[in-house]
Amino acid sequence: MAWHLSVEVDRSSATSLAGQLQDALRHRITDGVLRPGTRLPSTRRLADDLGVSRSVAVEAYEQLAAEGWLTGRHGSGTCVSERAGGTDSTAPPPAVALREPEPAAPVRWDLRTGRADPGNFPRQEWLASYRTVLAAAGREELDYPPVAGHPSLRRALADYLGRVRGVRTEAGSVMVTAGFAQGLSLLCEALPRLGIRTLAVEDPGHRSQRRFIEECGMRVVPVRVDHEGIDVGELAASGARAVLVTPAHQYPTGVVLSSARRQALVRWARESDGLVVEDDYDGEFWFDREVRPAALQELAPEHVVYAGTASKALVPGLRIGWLAVPPPLTAALDRVRSRRDLGTDGLTQCAFAELITSGLLDRHLRRVRARYRRRREAFTRAAAELLPEATLLGVSAGLHGYLQLPPTTDESALTSAALTRSVLVHGGAHHQVTPGPRPPALVIGYAHLPLAGITDALTALRDALAEQHRVVTPGARGTARRGTAPRATGSRAPI
After folding, report:
1. Nearest by Cα to 242 from 277, 214, 285
2. Which residue has the higher pLDDT, 438 or 98?
3. DSSP state letters, 47-99
4. For residue 382, what is the enclosing H or E element?
5. If I label 123, which of 234, 341, 427, 431 is the partner at 20 to 30 A Cα–Cα?
6. End-to-end CA distance of the chain
7. Phi, psi torsion values for 441, nearest 5 degrees
8. For position 46, which CATH number holds?
9. What is the pTM of this model?
């Protein structure tokens, strides 16, 4: 194989050509440009590329190998030595704001949320959609896409969201993004142009999301959540003119924003000329017999940004998200986006549009929804049997569950004890913003676990609880209470 190497030699220099080549390679290795394991061209190829005799390249390679910078094996060519000096190649990559870092040591059961099962990705349907797009691709599909998204996907999303969520929008008001993270960052840059510099968030809520918003330059104000959803009275008192909510399946508690609160939130937005960002992060997976409520956006499309993503319906690696934007905000988002990039991968957008319009996405979601429903049912049964004193809050939906524990439970000690049993799980405090008393809880992601693994993981949690002498002894059976726990006095009863 014709490997290439970017180095130069100066024939007018007093340093020999072999010496120059040695110095250049040492500097590139020391600076981390050439990393351990990097394959280098053969001496014959390098000499030909530089226009020098092969003996120059041979001398340079041999000297560097003798010093430990390079290594050569028969049939494998010459590589930068794994022991070569330079930048630490084992240093962890920078943290990604909306993703939690991986655990320091492997665990058997990772119960953190936000993890869909990648085995559900519809490979055949996606391949068929991509082939259809490639076969018909012309200049429009192969050129730079519009920054707001390819017209075919914007049309498909407008139709799809209206059909399955009740979203009132049109193609020109839909922006395709590289996942929800990019959409949120675009909003955080566009909102100050409208005089909005504070974004209220739910408490408890998404911990990494809060940090992400702050890093984008917005001020964050937490607003308490109770068993009806976000407290709109507290939101109004905060002075914020924008709020990020998860009304269909509140994260992490799983409660649904009540009808009265939905109406109150819409009134707040209209009276304050405010903006609601509706994050429908797992809307495809609703298992309750009751009909899933329509999007909040349907009630006030002029004041609500509806945000969705394909990360859980398909896989996060596709990096496809969308915003259905009120017209006054559309131009501001376009200007912000046009300074950041030249749009999202056009062929992937077209393939996703084909997946939607062909009906393959609906078929895939019906299949996957049934699989996740079985996991939810297994999780509910295991919680009832193994953690009978816990209360499973919220509706049967999504890819995680919120287990409220007996008030005497030491939440921090429990999660630590679980980790000694190779179970990584977060407590409710992990998602809380405002300090204060709150019933202890566990937030358990189950969608990526095998059915038997759900029982095994909750068995380990039962044993960790029994170790604290807070619950019944191992083997006790009971029925976990499902749904809404008794509310404390007042509308701001914390979860």
Report:
1. 277
2. 438
3. HHHHTS-HHHHHHHHHHHHHTTSEEEETTTEEEE-TT--SS-TTSPPPPPTTS
4. helix 360-386
5. 341
6. 62
7. -155, 165
8. 1.10.10.10
9. 0.81
